[in-house]
Amino acid sequence: MAIVTIESAQDIAVAVEQLAISEFTAIYFSGIPIPLRRKPKGFTTLFQAIIGQQVSVASAAAIWTRVEQAGLTAQSDVARATPEHLAQLGLSRLKICYAHALAESLLDYDGLANLPDEAVLSALTQITGIGRWTAEVYALHALGRADVFPHGDLALQGATRLALQSTSPPR
Predict the structure, then answer these.
(1) Rg (CA), the chain
(2) Any residues with CB less than 8 A from the CB of 82 and at least 6 apart, and which?
(3) Helix extents (H) in the chain
(4) How far is 62 from 158, CA to CA, in rounded Å?
(5) 3-class DSSP assignment, residue 145
(6) Alpha carbon distances (Å) from 161 to 22, 44, 131
(7) What is the pLDDT of residue 37?
């Protein structure tokens, strides 16, 4: 199967047209534009995703601001950072472990772009602290994978229920 990516507003337009012929017709006809939400490939985006795991958007943003202010967005800097320093920035004990595991990984970020979707998710989930949700979020936002979607995301499930005016979770 070919790798399908979202690289531009035109790609989003094509996807939105496909919504019109699916069970998501209500979303299509809502008229709300769907923005292109691409992020750069690489360590920083994946590290930011780890910080955003299981915390509010506001908490993740506050922690990320402190991480940026401390100059700890590069892989080598995070690898050298002490657990105490990362804790002072707001990372939990587990996220410090995850940050170090990611920083010490030999992940080939450029090579991920050429792998099939499942191979990307498999490679990412081999790193301690990166589960299916984080891998899917990275594949969607950093690699623009059109056929990868974080189904387990509670906010997306809630938004889908609202858009479809349903009380049951989306399939």
Answers:
(1) 17
(2) none
(3) 9-19, 25-29, 43-51, 57-69, 75-80, 83-88, 93-104, 109-112, 117-125, 132-141, 154-163
(4) 24
(5) strand
(6) 15, 32, 24
(7) 83
Q: In this predicted structure, what is the pLDDT of residue 150?
A: 81
**Cα–Cα distance between 94 and 54 in angstroms, integer?**
12
Contacts for 66-69: CB closer than 8 Å, 24+ residues apart: 66/90
In this structure, what are the phi and psi dihedrals at residue 145, rounded to the nearest 5 degrees? -70, 115
| Tokens 């790609």 found at | 11
Q: Confirm if 67 and 58 have CB atoms less than 8 A apart.
A: no
Adjacent-strand bridge partners of 145: 5
Q: What is the pTM of this model?
A: 0.79
- Residue 44 has a CB neighbour count (10 Å cut-off) of 20
Sequential pLDDT tens for the chain (171 residues): 678 787 888 887 777 776 666 666 666 666 677 777 889 999 999 999 999 998 999 999 999 999 999 999 999 999 999 999 999 999 999 999 999 999 999 999 999 999 999 999 999 999 999 999 999 999 999 999 988 888 777 777 777 777 677 777 665
120 token code pair: 């990307």
CB-CB contact of 103 with 43 (8 Å): yes
